[in-house]
User: What shape does this take?
Amino acid sequence: MNPKQPIKMTIESRKSICYKRMSGCGNLYITIGEDESGAPYEIFVQNANGCTSMTNTFARYISNDLKEQTRDLPKIIKNLRKVPCAACIKKNSPVDGKSCCHIMADVLERYVKPEKMLDSPF
Assistant: This one.
């Protein structure tokens, strides 16, 4: 490679939507990116407090599964809803699910079934 030649970079842009939800540890931001056909393709999760490594691990798991041809969203949603968290269960103030994973499952379900949308994304 000639060091004087510029590096050609390809930049992809994807349509995405970001949801803000409340977990037991604070705000949880869930971004769902779409592929060219409009189907969910990847998910990113950010939280200011709590189990950042755990939520990112689950987001990667979900993204990898979404990128596969099977895209078994009902199975993903069902499995995510099984994960409890003491911080969400013991929280005295309102939270949007029994764990960050449960909240991710709800957001994914509402994303693919807009008629279930109880509140709009910000």
Q: What stands out?
A: The radius of gyration is 17 Å. Helices lie at 52-67, 73-80, 86-89, 100-112. The first helix runs from residue 52 to 67.
